Amino acid sequence: MSFLRNITKGLRSLFRKQQVDRELDEELRAYQEMGAEEKMKDGLSRKEALRAVRLERGSLEVSKEIVRSGGWESFVEICWQDLRFGLRMLRKSPGFTLVATLTLALGIGANTAVFSVVESILLIPLPFRDSDRLVAIWATQKSQPARIGASMPEFEDYKAQSHSFEYLANFLSGWTYTWTGQGEPRNVNCTAISYDFFPMLGIKPYLGRLYTPEEYHVDGVQVVISDRFWTEQLGSDPHVVGRVLNLDGTGQTVIGVMPPVPDLFPETDIWAKIEPDFRWMRIRGNKFLDVVGRLKPGVTSEQAEQELTAILQRGPGESQELSVHLIPLKDELTGNVRSQLQLVMAAVSLVLLIACVNVAYLLLARNRKRRAEIAVRVSLGAGRGRLMRQFITENLVLATLGGATAIVLALASVRLFGRVNTLPRNASIGVDAYALLFAFFITAFTGLLLALASSTASSNLDVIARLKTERKGSASIAGQRSSLLLVSEVCLAVVLSIAAGLLLRSFEQAEHLDPGFLPDHLLSTYLRTNDSRDARLFFPQLVEQTAELPGVSAAALGKCMPGVYAPSATLIFGDRPNDPMNAPTVEACWISSEFFKAIGTRLLNGRFFTVRDDASASPVVILNQALAESYWPGQNPIGKQIGVNYVGAGRNTTSAPRLREIVGIVANVKQKGLDLPVEPAVYTPYLQDETNHAFAGFNLFVRTIGPPTSLAGTVRALVHSVRADQPIDVMQTMNDALLRALAPRRLSLVLVTSFAGLAVLLSAIGIFGMIAYTVSQRTHEFGVRLALGAKPQDVLQLVLGQGFKVVTAGVFVGVGAGFAITRFMRSLLYGVGPTDPLTFTVVAVLFALVALAACYIPARRASRVDPIVALRYE
Amino acid sequence: MGDKSSDLVQGTLDMLVLKTLALEAMHGYGITIRIEQMSRGVFRLNAGSLFLAIQRLERDGLIESEWKPTENNRRAKYYALTQKGRKRLDNETREWGRQVAAIARILEAS
Fold first, then answer.
1. Which domains does chain B have, with CATH numbers?
2. Is A575's Cβ below 8 Å from some Cβ in B?
3. How far does Cα A217 stand from its chain's mean position?
4. Lowest pLDDT segment from A28-42, A113-127, A355-369
5. Of A5, A26, A63, the CB nearest to B59
6. Is the pTM of this model over 0.90?
7. pLDDT: is A698 or A365 the higher one?
8. Which of A34, A139, A623, A841 is at a distance of 20 to 30 A from A285, taking alpha carbons?
9. CB contact, 8 Å: A25 with chain B?
10. DSSP secondary structure string, A340-362?
11. Contact B47 A37 (CB under 8 A)
12. Interchain CB contact of A28 with B (< 8 Å)
């Protein structure tokens, strides 16, 4: 109650100030009159009596001031005063205000934007029920980093024997159906799911229903479609349930529509079902399913890992070197960008620090001019606390201006990130309340930091000395404190530039280190078919006719996409004992005879495949150099025999693989990514795929003589002339495909580099500002020097020397810090070490040049001072 | 400024004001004179500290005010104890007695 009364009374004196003041005035006057009356009884005149009362009891104004300062509202009032004063000061120096506000806005804005992205991707929980207990489940083989999926029998073991999970589900994503019957045939994206998948996430269909458990065991003719497919392709038809879609040549009835599943498979059109009864699903060694689960409350990841590992190892024919790992689903989705985003966040916070240092430096320079004002304040009785409060208010005003501009910047730039579709969860990127709170906090933090900087500048308030020597004091060199600020600024900018330089070098290395093939003049398209028997005729015919097109030097088919993707296979050897439980996993690819000629890979030994390596010929295989060297070091493997067991959905054999004769060794090709190391790989002729599975789809590679895009139309027409209803999703040049594969690396590269550029610019402005300020303060001194016979070059050297000293110190410390810090970004580097000498040298030299340029203009001005003007100016 | 009230133990001024108002409602000057009389001139108050204390007490709801004419036909603000103020005075008086007795015991013991 009394708290409430306190507030209302305080508010009353704030908002009805005059009335409250009048009352207090009247009360105090009455008080004095009464006192005076007493005195007058002793014979004093009225005037004398009032004077006596004032002396005894305090004057009217002082008393009022005391009473006013007692309530909390006086604090508000003082802040309000300071605020108005701060705004007035800012208005008086618009140049300073503009530069400082923009600098802070850049710093705070960039931080808010990056934080929004980091928060949306890495921090906000997935929007599913109990999402903190959702995990992805993988196996690994001892001493091998590769993750291994689960086979259907393994998954069924987990589900039957484990007690750690509320739900266990599996899925298979990234495959397609061909949808015909509505316009041009096209491929639609499918994710196959097991029965528990949606219940685990807590998502129910919008319309219709999901598959029943029984339907999973029937190769049925029903499908569940996604929100995306429903709205984009079917016009949100409310009567869609019951409609028949022609998928892969079969009529499938829509039974349900799922709502959008944010953050998980945003591209999915069809939610198909995992059918555990397919023959290729029953092979225990065919481990390709992704498994996810929701832990029971109270069960730890470690307990579940131990339990699943034990179940896995108990399975028939399973290796004892397998172990199971649980990864929180959110980390699983965002793991590939986590370290990049962290680096970007670190970079952008350095930019904020640099911006702060710059503004602090501006404040120092300005405060030196304000010394007289501050000294007057102190001599009029302003205490240290009161001054500090004024500084804080003033700088908070400045920071708030910056922060408000920053939020506008952040809102504008964050929308750009949402369009980057290589970022996971990109649909949910936005500036939310947390990001605004973050902006608020860094704004406040910045304001306080600046207040600290400007108050230390006016500490040591020797009033008299200040008032007297107002000019002289500032004639000294810009002062240790500001030099220190600049050194730290240069140091931060150097660290950031080194980080950017290393990323730049990595990108350059990834792009230009020999990938083992020639991406120029190479066109590719992915062709999927739904009928393997038909495809056995289609593909050989297509590749033969493509090769004959004018302007084409070679054409080939490949299951893999160099620099982007490759299937995997396990190997057995004809010349040594095999341990089938621990068979090595390698990259593998079904190819047509001209494949290496088309992609431009060199043959090192033996021969390429020919069209005669078909189903009726004896089986053959080509190895890459890495595989040859790791299993036949110093020997010639040509003529030796190995068996290749492809791993993946649809692999339709249970028998041990045929042994194939090694006929050739090719140069290493970076199969899975330009920024990933080369791994052992095998290549097999596509006509020798006894399972027919390879024929579900192939990449067609066309090596062109002219620019590859000029042939895109011709190739498209040819495909349709061979097979009229063949859908063609993407036709792209190899270079485009590679660029897209490097997109995540490019994003962090672009961001960190632009932040580094910003940092360099800011520190150049800082150096320029410092030298210009010093020069303006020392005009008189330079005039004297020149009058006494110093040459302009001497003055030039003097000023340059001073600037250079600061910059050298900054570069030195920055390079040292770089050596210490860059090893934390090792995982983001490719082809360069974290202490790459070239990067460090270039950055150091670059800085020296930038600094020299920034110093030169003011230094030149100093050397041209006219002694007469300079002396008169004083 | 000869402000003897600063010699008062922190917070006792509030208690003295409450005590002064326990008998009857009074205006600011009356409170000053009463405190000085009762302390036989040991405590002297200046206007600032007195009205600061009054503002504090009023905001805490311990006293309430009313403009009334004085005996000399002047307008003055009269302050009176509220129910809550009376209770507070009782508590503080008791607590003060306890503390004084305790301090006295300590001082006598040494």
1. 4-109 (1.10.10.10)
2. no
3. 43
4. A355-369
5. A5
6. no
7. A698
8. A623
9. no
10. HHHHHHHHHHHHHHHHHHHHHHH
11. no
12. yes
